[in-house]
Amino acid sequence: MHFTVTNLEEVFPLAEFLSDAFGPMAEIAVHDLDRPHASIVFIRNGHLSGRKKGDSMTKETLELTRKARDSGIDFISDYRGHDLNDHQFRVSSFFIRNKEDEVIGALCININITELQRAAHLLQTISETDSVNGMVTSGIPSQELEENPEENIRRVTREVIKQVHIPIDKLSRIERLAIIKDLKDRGIFLIKGAVGVVAPELKVSVPTLYRYLQSLK
């Protein structure tokens, strides 16, 4: 028994609920298949993909809806979506049918996994061990990783600064911004309190560092 509606607006309360349940890292969209070039009739957290109401669906979603029409499937979950707005997404799509059992729309949950990937990269970076003596590459015992998160943030920050080969007080704004971007890409700023640790290492104030981070968005 398929999920059927008279019109797509009946799905909007469910989409609102999913948006609240999944939070700010998930984009929730409802697509109208009768107008594929302006299919989005409902969207929340559209800033993640850069899309808005009236924009089109991705080629992947369009292709999946065609398969749903042919095969009769109700949903497809957890597939890699199209990269949008410098974000990568894991997508689940639920297909909506009318009373005649025709696919007329899709409810899509697009979870932004970019920050998760950065966090995973950071964890790998700070937890790599020497296969011989079980010490992390920086010389800090692995059991201290959880005990001294601030020290690990300093270590990674100093390593990135060292790669520039320029004294910290001689850095230009562009060079300083490049260091901050490198740290952001490594997931450093996903750690609570990281800004307060990194700022002194870069010899800038905390508000200044926040302004640098804002300029990278």
UniProtKB/TrEMBL annotation:
This is YheO domain protein. Residues 153-213 form the Transcriptional regulator DauR-like HTH domain. It comes from the Bacteria. The lineage of its organism: Bacteria, Bacillati, Actinomycetota, Actinomycetes, Bifidobacteriales. Pfam families: HTH_22 (PF13309), PAS_6 (PF08348). InterPro entries: DauR-like, DauR-like_HTH, YheO. Coiled coil: none annotated. Residues 8-120 form the YheO-like domain.
